[in-house]
Amino acid sequence: MAKKPSQVKKPNLKTLIRRYIQKDGILKMEINNPNLEFSFLFHHPQLLDPNGNPRGLSFQANKPKKEDFIVISTKVDVSPEHVKILETDQKKKHKLYQSLIKLFLLKNVEHQVNRKDNSYIIHKRIFLNHQKLISRKDFYNSLRKIFTTDLHAIVLVQEACSGDFDLDNYSGSSLYT
Question: Are 109 and 122 in contact (CB under 8 A)?
């Protein structure tokens, strides 16, 4: 006999977010942190290189204790090759970081830019609904917003350092599918 809708047990938030990650990305690990209810490290999208290693960007989904939201974030360290180019031209470096900040503001994502360490973090909060849950649509849309903003930022770094970017990394069935 089938259970009545009121008898069906709803998953908790941690289980739900783990399921979303497994559908839209590759779960790498769960991180234990006493300040967080849960934290997952994962790759998005579900792409593998020829050796079977995850190819998507690295993300983290955290639920701070005593808060009514989760945070999805990605941290990017500018490559040593690009840092070397930027360090030879401080004006170019300053202009790049101005462009990155403008991008993050236009995309309406929270961010932290560290020019000394040549890195940035993009993150977005997703607030829980009245059932203390998050829809898959809200999770996915937030994840994609961070993902595409990061791809745009990577293009800006490549353009600042070489005047161009590699179309092979962004075409066909690569990171966009």
Answer: yes
Is 28 in contact with 4 (CB distance < 8 Å)? no
- How confident is residue 5, by pLDDT bands cut at 50, 70 and 90? low
* Mean predicted lDDT score pLDDT of the chain: 87
pTM of the predicted structure, to 2 decimals = 0.81
Please write the tens of the pLDDT for every residue from 99-133: 999 999 999 999 999 999 999 999 999 999 888 89
**Three-state secondary structure call for residue 150:** helix
| Mean pLDDT along residues 124-153 | 94
**Domains of the chain (ranges plus CATH)?**
10-169 (3.30.1460.10)
Task: With H, G, I as helix, E, B as strand and everything else as coil, classify residue 164.
Answer: coil
What is the pairing mode between strands 57-64 and 36-44? antiparallel
Sorted by sequence, the CB contacts under 8 Å of residue 93 that are 6+ apart come out as 86, 87, 115
First CA to last CA distance, the chain: 41
Give the residue ranges of DSSP H helices in 25-108.
80-87, 90-106
92 burial (CB, 10 Å; 0-12 / 13-18 / 19+) is middle
